[in-house]
User: Fold these one by one.
Assistant:
Number 1:
Amino acid sequence: MKAFNVITGLPRSGSTLLCNILNQNPDFYASSTSPLSELLAMMVNKFSTSPEVQAGLVRDSEAMTDKCNDVLTGIIEAWHADQADKVVFDKSRGWSFNALLLQQLCEGAKVIVTVRDLRGVFGSVEKQHRRTALFDASPSGLDKTIFARADAMFAPTGMIGQCAVGVEDIVRRFGNQVYLLQYEAFTLDPAAKLKEIYKFLEIEYFTHDFDNVENVAEDVDGLYLNKFPHEGSGKVTATNRQEWQEYVTPDIGSLIYGRYPAYNEFCGYQ
C-alpha cells in the first residue's frame, strides 16, 4: 500500500460517511469497520503472556522484539495486500486504544478521529432504538429505561463511554498528531473539512462530490439488530445540533454532558 492511516473515534459520528467520501478518490481505500486493530492487540497480548516469547526475550531481547514487530507489520501488510496501490484508511474504534502500537509499527501513519457532541451521539442511538422496539437484548426491565441505557452506555466500559475515554487518551498522547473531525462541522461544510484533512495527510486535494455519496464502506447492521445503521449516502446535509432534545430529557442531557469534561474540552464542545 502507498500509505497506512486509521480512522477512529465515537459511534454515530460520521466515520462511515467520511469513508464513503474518501472512497471517491481512486487513490484511496477506506474500509468498513475493520478487525485489524483487535487482531493486533490479541497478538500483543499473546506475545506478552507466552512463556516461549518470554524465554526468547531473555536469550536475545533485540532479536525476539524484531521478530514480534515483523509479525505484526506483516499482518497489516497482508490484511490490505489487495490495496497495494492505494492510500489505506483502516476504520475501527479500537485504534483509539492501540495508538502507541500503531505509532511503533507504522511510523508516519495519520490518525483521523471523528467526534460528536455526546448528547447528539446518544440522541442518535435512542432515535434508532425507538424505531426497533421489537428487538431489545436488555437483561431486565430496569435496563430498558432510558436512564439505565444512558448510564450503561456512558460508563467507562460502555459503548459510548469507552470511546470517549479512548479519544481523551489519544489526544493526551499525541495532541496535534491527530485530526479531530467534528461531525457537526463536517456535515455543515464538508468541502472545507475535506480540504483540512488533505492538508493533514499532506496529499493534493481531490474534488469530491458531496451531493451524490455512495454507501460503499458498508457494515453488516443486522449483527447489531439494526440498532446502529451505517448509512452514509446521498447528499451531505447539515445535522441538527439540537435534535437530541427530541429524544433525551434535559436532566439526562446534563448528566451526559458532564460525564466527560476532558472530552468536551479537547473536542470543542464547551
Note: The chain has one domain: 3-267.
Number 2:
Amino acid sequence: MSFIVWIILAIVLLVVVWFIALYNRFVSLKLRVSEALSDIDVQLKRRYDLIPNLVETVKGYMTHERELLENVTQARAAAVTAQKEGDLKEQQQKENMLSNTLRTLFAVAENYPDLKANVNFLDLQRELADTENKIQAARRFYNSVVKDLNTALRVFPSNMVGNMFRFTSAEFFEVTTAQEKEPVKVSF
C-alpha cells in the first residue's frame, strides 16, 4: 500500500475514535444527570421521613399554630405527590414551597422556650438542616452536570454527534417564582 493510503486510513481511524469518544461522553453525561437527579430524590426522601417526626414533636408545644403544622403536612404531601408524578418543574415548585414552610415553622418555634430546649426537637431540627444542606448540594451537582451536558450539545463539533444520536438537553433545577427567592418573613 502506498503512503497516501496509510495516511487516509489513519485519518479515518482518528475520526472513528473521536466519534466513539464523543458518543461515549454523551452517554456518560446522560447517566450522570440521572444519577444526580436520583441523589436529589434520596435526600428528599430523607426530608419526607423526618418531617412527620418533627411535626409530632412540635405539636405538643405549639397548640396555637395548628394552621402552620397543617401547612407543613400539606406541603410535604404536595411535594411527595409531585416527586411521584415526575414533572421536574412541578416538583421544583412544591419543594421550594415545602422549604419555605419549614423555615416558617422553625422561626415560629423560637417563641417556645421549652420546645427550643427539647432534645428531640433539637436533634430533628439539626437533622433537617443537614438534609436541607444536602439537598442544596445535590441540586448544585445536578445543575453542574446538566450544564456540562447542555454545553456539549451546543458546542461544535460535539453538537453534530449529539444531534445525530438525538441526545436531548436536560432542564436545570431552579427556583421558578420571585416569591420563592424572597426570604421567609415571620411576624409575631
Note: The chain has one domain: 33-181.
Number 3:
Amino acid sequence: MRTLLIGGALAALVVALSACGGSDSVDSELQRQVDLHAISQIEKDFHESMSKKDLDQMMSMWTENATMTGGAGFTATGKAEIRKFWAAAPPFQRENKWVSDHPAYKLRATVNGDRGTLFFECHFVDAATRKVELVTAIDADVQRIDGRWLITSTVGSAATLAP
C-alpha cells in the first residue's frame, strides 16, 4: 500500500511539473525527486530482505567493493565478507521469527548527482511475542551505478526507541 501511495504521489509530481513547461530547473527537481525515491527504496528492500530472510535480496543492494562497519571496530569489505556477516546475523537466523520494521519519519536521504546518503533505523520485533528484540541504525553512502542506486558503504550503530 505504501509503495502505491508513494508511486501515485510521484506520478502526480511528474504531471504537475510537466505542466510547468519543462524548464531545466523543473527537470532537475524532478530528477532529484526520482533519485530520492530510488534511494529510499533501498531501505524498504533492506527491511524486506531481513523479514523474509532473503540473503540474495540483501546482497543485491551492495556494490562489489562495498564496506560495512559496525560495533567494536568490525569492518567487512566486499560482497563476500558482507554476505558472510549477514548470513550469521540474528535477523537472518531461521529460529528468529523477527519482523524488521522502521520508523519511516526518521528516514533521511540526500542526493548529489550520482552519489547520495541514506540513514534509517531498524527495529526487529519478534512476531510471536511482539517484543522488540533489537534496535539499530544504518548510515549509508549510496551511488548510482549503471542506472541503479546501490550501497557503497555503511556504518551501523545502536539506536534508541525515541521519537
Note: The helical segments are 2-18, 24-52, 55-59, 78-88.
